[in-house]
Amino acid sequence: MSADPTSYSNFEDASAKELDIKLEVDFKRKILKGVVTFVIDIHHDDTSRLVLDTRDLVILNVVAAESGERLEYTLGDAHPAFGSPLTVQLPDSSANRYKLTIAIQYETKEPGPSAVSAMQWLEPTQTAGKIHPYLFTQCQAIHARSMLPCQDTPAVKCSYVAEITVPSELTALMSAVKLEDKPSPESDKKICQFKQAVAIPSYLIALVVGALESRQIGPRSHVWSEKEVVESAAYEFAETEQMLQAAESIVGPYLWGVYDLVVLPPSFPYGGMENPCLTFVTPTLLAGDRSLANVVAHEISHSWTGNLVTNKTWEHFWLNEGFTVFLERKIAAVMHGEKERQFQAIGGWKTLQDSVNTFGSDNPLTALVPVLKDVDPDDAFSTVPYEKGFALLYYLESLLGGAEVFNKYLRAHVEHFKYKVITTDDWKSFFLSYFHKQVEEGVLDGVEWDKWLYSPGMPPYNPSYDPTLSAACHSLADQWAKASASDLNQFKASDLESFTAKQTQEFLDKLLQEQSPLSCEHLKAMETLYQMNSRKNAEIRFRWQKLCLKSSHEDCFPHVVKFLVEQGRMKFVRPLYREFYKCPKSQQLAVETFKQNKHAYHAIAASLIEKDISLK
Ligand code: BES
Ligand code: ZN
């Protein structure tokens, strides 16, 4: 078995260094087909096989590229989450046994009704423009293997070049720098070319194809999308360059050249995905007032933590996400002040409590570093690595004398580990050696390392954050929670007037934490005064609907259905389906809504929702 429990690849014996991807996008059959060529370093004299990850791929031919010699291969049994190992016999006649070039010709399988895959193929009717089809990929955590045969472990980093053949009226983009298109021998097609010169793990390989347009939003940035949303996207993400500069001021130069964004169709299952040179984002960020742009700050931060300094396996995912949330909130501090960072940390702590409650406080998956043997990373996903990771770094920062000292450390961490992959032990030993003076002085003596890193449940320490920006939200929420029916006339439409969107979010979060649900009368009054159902901000809609479902408030059902149908971001649809299903009055409606819309969700989302509402 491999050193990464989620990959079959024998990357300790042989590892890919460069990838050459030549694929055609066939919208008729909904497949990718072509050739992937690997330059491989062989690490041992006796390495005779190369094991790659695949899932739902049709392997057509494997050759040693220099000699053209056909190589023997076998495809192992298919595991539902991990796929099939592809074992290739290496040639013993190779001139230089320590470097080999292997080319694999293959096709992806035509998508079946319940196949979970990196690719989502959209019909023209599922796009904003309604004329052209659309394709996008989502490879994190272990879906790259359903797009191409590869060593699908973050432990291996590889540069790549690519040539993607698409219908000439469409545009392909990848997680790389886009080069000039070139003509295809077939006149109705063109070839889009790309180069990613920095070595990246397989989960950062990404492709999107559609009727895409772009607007420049900064000196190194464009936003791409269908033309219907490109103007609003350019407005929403106009702070991108400012965020890049804020990050650079903390962790050093941006090393990827271009930083573009692409706004995907509404079924994109995440808020954002840090594909290098080209962050993917959900259209649910388009609130019209830039209030959800922190997701962009988050994906920008991954350009250092995650994409340069990468977790070695998914068990150390907090090194990607915890560090990235920490850096995202540093950007908030540079742009809006330390109080804003503290305010966001308060929201984060609530998110952590919510996750720990959902999973159960003794669930091993709530440990910062969980054991993932035989666990599908999609099933293990939660906000624990994000928020427990943030809380640990914040706690350490406060012990070590605050932001200034810690920012220097962050920069040194990136400098030390950039282009590498790391485990929690690697992180901790560099951290302790960087702060060796403070360690000698006993500053860190009270840190309960094992509890923080390996125990399930909430952390062994309760941070206190500056309440300036949360105080008004919490006191208004307390008033609502305490009010009896006859007190409801004390509330006014203007109560929320001075709140930012994030403060309204915090107000709702505080109410969601109350033990007893609000009465329907309370919720009706709140709707009349605050017009929650007509909010455009998806984070506010989500919290409001959760609050209503907690009280089985039937007025909200049609609004919940509408939100579940118009977008497929898992952060919203999974908890809403769970609550919708849990509430006896809406259980039937939850199941029907899912069954009618299953085809529109991304396969990753559909498969997880099915488990959430007990259909699988
Ligand atoms: N890398 C993640 C998304 C992800 C994680 C995809 C695991 C697949 C598996 C991305 O950076 C992320 O965390 N996005 C968040 C945004 C946020 C925390 C601000 C999201 O999607 O909501
Ligand atoms: Zn992230």
Write the layout of secondary structure elements.
Elements (H helix, E strand, L loop, with lengths): L13 E13 L4 E12 L6 E6 L2 E8 L8 E3 L8 E6 L9 E10 L10 E4 L11 E4 L20 E10 L3 E4 L2 E2 L3 E2 L5 E12 L6 E4 L2 E6 L2 E5 L1 H10 L3 H12 L8 E4 L8 E2 L4 E4 L12 H8 L8 E2 L6 H19 L1 H22 L17 H4 L3 H16 L3 H15 L3 E2 L1 H11 L1 H5 L8 H6 L16 H12 L18 H13 L6 H11 L7 H13 L6 H10 L3 H13 L4 H11 L5 H10 L4
Helix pairs in contact: 2-3, 2-4, 3-4, 4-5, 4-7, 5-7, 12-13, 13-15, 15-16, 15-17, 16-17, 17-18, 17-19
The structure holds ligand BES and zinc ion.
Question: How would you describe what is shown here?
Answer:
- It is built from 19 helices and 22 strands.
- With 616 residues, it is an alpha+beta fold.
- It folds into four domains: 1-210, Immunoglobulin-like (Sandwich); 212-303, Zincin-like (2-Layer Sandwich), CATH 3.30.2010; 312-454, Neutral Protease Domain 2 (Neutral Protease, domain 2), CATH 1.10.390; 471-612, Peptidase M1, leukotriene A4 hydrolase/aminopeptidase C-terminal domain (Serine Threonine Protein Phosphatase 5, Tetratricopeptide repeat).
- Strand 13 and strand 14 (189-200) form a beta hairpin.
- Helix 13 packs parallel to helix 15.
- The protein is globular.
- The mean pLDDT is 97.
- It binds ligand BES and zinc ion.
- Zinc ion binds at residues 298, 302, 321, 324.
- Zinc ion is lined by residues 298, 302, 321, 324.
